[in-house]
């Protein structure tokens, strides 16, 4: 017999089936939210993985196409590699869960979420987040949960919790908040320039909803929860720390890490490591964990310097941004380029424009989202951190950073009607030492303006960090964290936005949640930094979008035709439209509502294509003058093609004002002639006259 637990959540039923399926996993729940069904499981290995100094957590989110009644596309009719949405969802599930596992736990843990049915009104991503929290909480895996997650929309100034498909389509905000019993542990947001105060209000409104769900999960755990198993701790022995401090004093470690040059600091740590390896050469047990011990020693030193001494490793003030630089047009012949530098973090973004037909097609579980015209791609090569590693394509981190920058910039993009282009920005990381994702927001915003994309306003991004003490009141929020402060700190709070408000948030933390005071301070300090970057750095490089697209970018002209005439323009099996493309060298896109986009680099050829299309869709009336080509000669007259797929006939009597015996006396194949329309003959063909054309 299995057990069922139910609660009402945002007007829909959330039902957890426990013990119904996957009984051999450490924890499993078949979670129903409306008609959305996700199987979430949590499993752990029996023994710790040897030779590692991190917690090996793996999170999977599997999209099954049967969940929306589809057969996968392509030749192979199986689900292939994870989609970008699946990867991003895995990351968003991981972030609130990871901090709640023991820091010294080295057993492999896998959280698997399989989407089996999708109700458009009940987010499968949200259901998977709740499912992972329940499966882990009821399992015997050590876990300081539960957590809960709520999505928030903003419609006409009012909050909507876990919005349905129709609400998501018109919402000014897509906010996801995860909480523990006391604190907020994860924030992810995209927004249409939502003011900071409204965003804070939304975060804590979601936090309140989360408390109700946590009470629900508590009842499940109380009824079905397993006792947490014991595990082998991989903590570093205190005796080792004491011995290390005898050889390398805290003062020496401070000197080693107190530099803004990453390479210098790494060399200092290498010297310290060699010194300690020599000292402990006879102690194999200590040598096995020495790397982790040095990391911990370095971490404690940096945290003490920041929290107690208010000293940052590079000597900056707590709210000081690293040296900034911005420039545009550094790459010739591309459609737009810009580079943004912040300390040892440097991003170059290149913008490419194309016709709307080049928008990315999406084949996923969200049937409302079938394509996207703006794509942001982020690359992180090994040389940017001074390492050697072959490129294997984008990993989860690259996809995540690209999606964050994309989310930050979408709210300021012009509509397709205002700017009928597909847009791709690629952020190349030249150098990295903290917060490359937010540097790519700044570089991309300038690159779009340099390319002539009429964005509503510039967007800047910055990251805040955190170092906490033993109590909630003992903390320090840092503006613009570098790599070391990210590694050893407690938070990476990324906020992007305009002067008007926030467009994107992503919060990663390593502790068990944040208080309201910390969140408010982090948002306030990022707003101050963002305003400075916009006003003092970015606007001086490029203040507004260029009035036109660049020399090398394709030009697009638009026209509207009667939807009933689309078939005439396309022609049988595409014959007519392909003839236009062949003659002019342009690209043509036609939507179902009759909107025609003509894309090319030669303005004259584009004008020619527009004229052809206009001619094809014209309702022919007597008196209209056309220019055409002789394509066929008969005894009784000549056929004139005046547009691809469109032809009419000039009777022999209408060719010349003088009487002629045969057509060939005046016309030959390929001649270009002017004709005037006489209407249609008895057979419905268009009749032309050459002799009646009025000379200009």
Explained architecture:
The chain is α+β, with helices and mostly antiparallel strands and 696 residues long. 31% of the residues lie in helices and 29% in strands. It has five domains: 3-148 and 196-224, GHMP Kinase, N-terminal domain (Ribosomal Protein S5, domain 2, 2-Layer Sandwich); 238-307, Arc Repressor Mutant, subunit A (Orthogonal Bundle); 324-468 and 518-541, 2-Layer Sandwich (Ribosomal Protein S5, domain 2), CATH 3.30.230.70; 555-616, K Homology domain, type 1 (Ribosomal Protein S8, Chain: A, domain 1, 2-Layer Sandwich); 625-689, OB fold (Dihydrolipoamide Acetyltransferase, E2P) (Beta Barrel), CATH 2.40.50.140. The strands form six sheets. The protein has an eight-stranded antiparallel beta sheet, sandwiched between helices. Strands 1-2-3-4-6-5 form a six-stranded mixed beta sheet. A five-stranded mixed beta sheet has the order 11-12-13-17-16. The longest helix is centred in the N-terminal third of the chain and has 29 residues, at 196-224. The radius of gyration is 32 Å and the shape is elongated. 42% of the residues are buried.
């Amino acid at each position: 017999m299995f057990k069922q637990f139910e609660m009402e959540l945002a007007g829909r039923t959330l039902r957890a089936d426990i013990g119904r399926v996957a009984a051999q996993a450490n924890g499993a729940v078949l979670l129903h939210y409306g008609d959305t069904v996700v199987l979430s499981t949590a499993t752990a290995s029996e023994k710790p993985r040897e030779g590692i100094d991190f917690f090996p957590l793996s999170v999977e989110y599997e999209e099954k196409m049967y969940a929306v009644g589809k057969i996968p596309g392509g030749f192979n009719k199986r689900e292939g590699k994870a989609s970008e949405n699946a990867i991003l969802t895995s990351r968003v599930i991981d972030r609130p869960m990871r901090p709640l596992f023991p820091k010294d736990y080295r057993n492999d843990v896998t959280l698997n979420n399989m989407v089996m049915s999708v109700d458009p009104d009940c987010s499968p991503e949200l259901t998977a987040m709740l499912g992972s929290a329940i499966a882990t909480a009821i399992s015997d895996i050590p876990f300081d949960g539960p957590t809960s997650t709520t999505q928030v929309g903003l419609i006409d100034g009012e909050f909507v919790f876990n919005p349905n498909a129709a609400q998501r389509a018109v919402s000014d905000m897509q906010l996801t908040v995860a909480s523990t019993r006391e604190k907020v542990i994860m924030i992810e947001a995209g927004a249409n320039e939502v003011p900071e105060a409204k965003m804070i209000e939304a975060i804590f409104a979601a936090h309140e909803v989360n408390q109700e769900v946590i009470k629900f999960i508590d009842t499940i755990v109380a009824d079905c929860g397993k006792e947490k198993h014991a595990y082998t701790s991989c903590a570093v022995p205190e005796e080792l720390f004491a011995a290390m401090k005898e050889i390398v004093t805290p003062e020496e470690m401070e000197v080693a890490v107190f530099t803004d040059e990453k390479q210098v600091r790494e060399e200092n740590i290498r010297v310290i490591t060699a010194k300690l390896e020599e000292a402990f050469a006879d102690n194999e047990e200590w040598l096995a964990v020495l790397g982790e011990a040095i990391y911990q020693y370095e971490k404690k030193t940096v945290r003490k310097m920041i929290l107690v001494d208010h000293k940052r490793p590079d000597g900056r003030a707590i709210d000081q941004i690293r040296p900034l630089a911005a420039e545009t047009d550094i790459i010739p012949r591309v459609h737009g380029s810009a580079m943004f530098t912040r300390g040892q973090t440097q991003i170059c973004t290149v913008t490419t424009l194309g016709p709307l037909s080049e928008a990315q097609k999406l084949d996923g579980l969200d049937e409302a989202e079938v394509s996207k015209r703006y794509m942001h791609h982020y690359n992180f090569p090994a040389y940017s951190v001074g390492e050697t590693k072959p490129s294997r394509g984008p990993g989860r981190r690259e996809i995540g950073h690209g999606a964050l920058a994309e989310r930050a910039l979408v709210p300021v993009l012009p509509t397709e009607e205002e700017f009928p282009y597909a847009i791709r920005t690629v952020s190349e990381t030249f150098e990295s030492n903290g917060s490359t994702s937010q540097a790519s927001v700044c570089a991309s915003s300038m690159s779009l303006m340099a390319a002539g994309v009429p964005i509503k306003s510039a967007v800047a991004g910055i990251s805040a960090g955190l170092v906490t003490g033993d109590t909630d009141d003992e903390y320090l929020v840092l503006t613009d964290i570098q790599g070391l402060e990210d590694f050893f700190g407690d938070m990476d709070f990324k906020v992007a936005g305009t002067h008007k408000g926030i467009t994107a948030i992503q919060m990663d933390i390593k502790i068990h949640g944040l208080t309201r005071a910390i969140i408010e301070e982090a948002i306030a300090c990022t707003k101050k930094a963002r305003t400075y970057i916009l006003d003092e750095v970015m606007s001086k490089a490029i203040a507004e979008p260029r009035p036109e697209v660049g020399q090398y970018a394709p030009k697009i002209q638009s026209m509207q035709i009667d939807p009933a005439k689309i078939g005439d323009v396309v022609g049988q099996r595409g014959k007519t439209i392909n003839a236009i493309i062949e003659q002019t060298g342009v690209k043509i896109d036609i939507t179902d509502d009759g909107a025609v986009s003509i894309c090319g680099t030669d303005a004259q050829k584009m004008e020619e294509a527009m004229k052809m299309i206009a001619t094809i869709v014209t309702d022919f009336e007597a008196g209209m003058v056309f220019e055409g080509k002789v394509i066929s000669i008969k005894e009784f007259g000549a056929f004139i093609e005046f547009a691809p797929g469109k032809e009419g006939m000039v009777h022999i009597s209408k060719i010349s004002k003088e009487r002629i015996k045969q057509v060939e006396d005046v016309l030959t194949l390929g001649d270009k002639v002017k004709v005037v329309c006489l209407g249609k003959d008895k057979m419905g063909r268009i009749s032309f006259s050459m002799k009646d054309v009025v000379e200009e």
